[in-house]
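Methods — Computational structure assignment.
A single polypeptide chain was analysed. Its primary sequence is given first, followed by the predicted tertiary structure written as structure tokens.
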Amino acid sequence: MTRHPAWEKWPKAEKVIVRQAFKNAYQRECAALIETLKKELAAVEKPEDLWIFADKIADCRDEIHRKYDFRYSVLQRVLANLLVDGSLSLDDLQGLNEEKLTDLSKSARDYREIRKMYERDDG
């Protein structure tokens, strides 16, 4: 992934845009996860089920924390992955420098291709 100088500088307006888009994606994902977990919790009947459910919550927490890493040093990769997952769209990021938007589009396309290769290898 090419890191252009545009990724080194974050004007205040861009920080607000990216932080809000990131926050919205995180909120949406957590809301969807809560709904899923509520349904799964309703099926818990035995103590063993409860511990399996608790492990699943821990795994989900770890995945969310990994996925939503808001450090500027890794933000290009994180945003590109969120685009690939459908958690974000380029519309959510309108107002960012055009160079950043172009880089994100390219990175997301590359990540999509890499994921397809891994899916073929696993399938």
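Note: The chain has four helices and no strands.
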